[in-house]
Amino acid sequence: MLRNPRDWQAVLYLTAQPLLIIYQWHWGIFWPAYMAVLFLSIGVSSIHHNHAHLKMWRSRWLNRVTDLWLTLLQGHPTFRIPCDT
Length: 85
Description:
mainly alpha
């Protein structure tokens, strides 16, 4: 369902970052996990940029879910809904 097999790395980053943040929220700062979150933040920013240009999934629905997930992780919208005026 992914367009490129390398997109599995992006799926891993998009899953690992929030899991590490949740882990630290519950158990406190663990410095190796904190450093991993910082590294993954840069990776997620690149994924966000690349996904805006070339979607990861063949399915339009999965691309919209990924857009929403990236919006939640990054704090700014990945997509906009076009308005007919």
